[in-house]
Amino acid sequence: GVDYGRRCCDFIVAETFFAYAEAKLALECARQYAKGVPVVISFNLKRGDDLIDGVLIQDALRFLADAGADVVGLNCGRGPATTLPILEEAKKNGIKVPLAFVPVPYRTNNENPNFMTLKDENGKIAFPLDLDPWLCSRSQIAAFTRRAHELGIQFMGICCGNASHLTRAMAEALGRQPPASRYSADMSKHAYYGTDSTLVGFNTEEVCKKQF
């Protein structure tokens, strides 16, 4: 048959799987119809440690890696704070292939590890239109990116809810300077906290004296 993969792509991403069985099928299809093309497989993990077909997430990652997936990990569903611990455990378990870290940019937590259960101040589910108060800051995204990099994670991105300034923060945290870095804040020009010599002395001097 025709080797479709080599004709049209550099790698294949099969993502947002809730069940191990469907991820396994996706890997088998990619191997059959796109021979030789790297395959990334990632899961959307709900509350708990198991997928909807009962397979533990750590087992699922290991099974897929052993079956020939080039990259395995998580995407969507969970924010950085509840995605990284899963990947940290995978590293401890000896996963040999690169890991994928593609969280949603929301401040999920142990009580609500998946962004679909985050609530507003009135107790109403915030998903999908009222998640703004739960967004990570660019500094938080940068911090999680550096932590992921320290773990040796090589495949990174941001899933649903992403914005360009967050992608820029992730790139800059990795030491890169994409074209959009020209829009990054230059705090040396800040009216009160800047250090640029062109600033009016009153601003910086008075702030240093804690007059404001």
SSE layout and pairing:
Blueprint (H helix, E strand, L loop, with lengths): L3 H5 L3 E6 L2 H14 L5 E5 L13 H10 L4 E5 L4 H13 L6 E4 L35 H13 L4 E2 L7 H10 L27 H8 L4
Parallel strand pairs: 1-2, 2-3, 3-4, 4-5
Helix pairs in contact: 5-6
Number of helices: 7
Number of strands: 5
Shape estimate: globular
> Strand order of the main beta sheet, please?
1-2-3-4-5
Overall radius of gyration: 21 Å
| Cα distance spanning the termini | 73 Å
Q: Major sheet, described briefly? A: 5 strands, parallel
Strand and helix order: HEHEHEHEHEHH
Keywords:
212 residues, alpha/beta, five-stranded parallel β-sheet, 7 helices, 5 strands, 34% helix, globular
Give an overview of the whole structure.
By secondary structure, the protein is α/β, with parallel strands linked by helices. It is 34% helix and 10% strand. The chain has helices spanning 4-8, 20-33, 57-66, 80-92, 138-150, 164-173, 201-208; strands at 12-17, 39-43, 71-75, 99-102, 155-156. A five-stranded parallel sheet has the order 1-2-3-4-5, covered by helices on one side. Strand 3 (71-75), helix 4 (80-92) and strand 4 (99-102) form a beta-alpha-beta unit. Helix 5 runs parallel beside helix 6.
Concise overview:
The chain is α/β, with parallel strands linked by helices.
